[in-house]
Amino acid sequence: MSPWRALGAELALWRAAGQRATFWCRDDDASHDSPALQRLLGIAERAALPIAVAAIPATLERSLVEAVMRSKFATVIQHGYAHRDHATANERKIELGLHSDIEETLADLARGAEMLRRGFSDRFLAVLVPPWNRIAAPIVARLPAVGFVGLSTLGARTAQSPVPGLTQCNAHVDVIAWRRDRTFIGVEAAIERALAHLRARRESGADPDEATGVLTHHLDMSSEAWDFLIELVDRTREHGGVWIDVEAAFGVAGRAPTTCGRSA
């Protein structure tokens, strides 16, 4: 069976059970406008596709604000603070680890949220996307104290709320092969990742309420990756899938952190 037919068959099982599979789209590493960003926002416009744009506060440029505010389908979430790697020689890349004082890290995150709130107003939702999808558990525990309502990493979530006051909704299909010169992972591999999460949701092997997340990086997308995204949206909708916005994915209304600076 072809990958696309397998996806259609899976979505047919959802329909037979009286359910509709939900999807959401997260795009990382945004800081400025570019032809690649315009391509993403153009796809969103033509397909009426909600996009959660994960912006880096420390490198934010006015051009990104202007581009997002012109789009009817883009919402901004927060991609760390500066997207800087603080890992030691034997660690995987991480910005939000315990290499710095936790109070300073939280203050940076809150400062970044305030920058995004000022720029994007109610188009900003206080969801944190850790760079490289890694974050230390003690930092997660303190995120609600500085106003964050959501967390998004990679892979099926183990709990809807990792700590009280924080909802987690992850990405499950990263379309880029980072260790193969940032090429497209391929239609078969991408659909298999989507199918794995959809099946787990349907068979109670994963939280059925966590929307299946597709992760893009507009600055690193090949033409094949763009084509896949367009076809995925079209085909999933054809078979009853629903693409939801970031507010629906996290079950919250769009708002910025209510508390900034150091937590108590």
Question: How would the blueprint of this fold be written?
Answer:
Elements: H1 3-16, E1 22-30, H2 35-47, E2 51-55, H3 62-70, E3 74-78, H4 102-120, E4 124-128, H5 137-142, E5 150-151, E6 167-168, E7 173-174, E8 176-177, E9 183-184, H6 187-202, E10 212-216, H7 223-238, E11 242-243, H8 246-250
Describe the protein's architecture and organization.
It contains 8 helices and 11 strands. It has helices at residues 3-16, 35-47, 62-70, 102-120, 137-142, 187-202, 223-238, 246-250, and strands spanning 22-30, 51-55, 74-78, 124-128, 150-151, 167-168, 173-174, 176-177, 183-184, 212-216, 242-243. Strands 1, 2, 3, 4, 5, 6, 7, 10 and 11 form a 9-stranded parallel β-sheet that branches. 37% of the residues lie in helices and 16% in strands. By secondary structure, the protein is α/β, with parallel strands linked by helices. Mean pLDDT is 94; it is low at 254-264. The protein is globular and about 50 Å long. It has a single domain (3-250), classed as Glycoside hydrolase/deacetylase (TIM Barrel).
Short structural summary:
By secondary structure, this protein is an alpha/beta fold.
Tally of distinct domains:
1
Name the helicity range. 25-40%
* CATH class call: Alpha Beta
Mean pLDDT: 94
Structural class: alpha/beta
